[in-house]
């Protein structure tokens, strides 16, 4: 018998929480990165441009990118030094729902 | 008595109406395939937006133009008659794809390569179609989701409802997807959003994984445990 899936989900959640406890504190809403991407013409921006627009510090920004990528909201693509952050379909859905009046 | 008709040699081109229809359909089909590959979740809705229709028309028009040019310059590819006509249709369809998706030059502006050509124009329509499809889908999804998640307390539901939905679909949701969902829920937990919005986003995340029908059932079954007080 395999382990039941919900136990896996909760185990994953606990593991993620423990990992994030020691991470950079996020004082800003990391979903703001999704809004910036959703407002861009191609729903994608170069990593540097997005960081400038986000007004986040380096550690906070890289932590936010990691979290959003792990959650399936964004994907990173492109050659080294020319990486681009792209909104996934789920990320676009969440961005539009979050801004629903 | 029936006798087989003697085969007539193809002595002239047959540029019939059908050729133009087929070549336009060929071009539009290529555009449709491109859109469908982008919007696998809801391809029909994607194809029914105005930017998508313009995009398909542009593809069809490019194929028609390519066929017209071939006929104008008499390119027959070594074939004769009907064979030449169909060869032109085939080549016009594929050549147009290369023509309108290619770039004449790619100058570097700042840190970016900017392709100059018809592909840029197509990209504009693709981007507009993308935004339009996103808005249409968000509007279509928002109402049913708001109904399903009405009266649900985020603080009670975020773990319980997620775990229950996954239990209902345990054979269909791979571990990798569960891990991603756990990351997404954790990100949502820490997001600076109103609980009402968080509940809706939780609905979006769960509906993406298990579908809105399973989500509706799950909410109804454990409603007493996750309802607002």
Describe what you observe in this structure.
- The complex is a heterodimer of chains A (101) and B (229).
- With 101 residues, chain A is mainly α.
- Chain A has one domain (27-98): Winged helix-like DNA-binding domain superfamily/Winged helix DNA-binding domain (Arc Repressor Mutant, subunit A).
- Chain A is built from five helices and three strands.
- In chain A, a hairpin with a 6-residue loop joins β2 (74-77) and β3 (84-87).
- The radius of gyration of chain A is 15 Å and the shape is globular.
- The N and C termini of chain A lie far apart (47 Å).
- Chain B is an all-alpha fold and 229 residues long.
- Chain B has two domains: 17-104 and 113-128, no CATH class; 149-226, no CATH class.
- In chain B, 72% of the residues lie in helices and 2% in strands.
- Chain B contains ten helices and two strands.
- In chain B, strands 1-2 form a two-stranded antiparallel sheet.
- In chain B, a hairpin with a 2-residue loop joins β1 (108-109) and β2.
- In chain B, α3 (50-73) runs antiparallel to α5 (118-148) and α6 (154-168) packs parallel to α8.
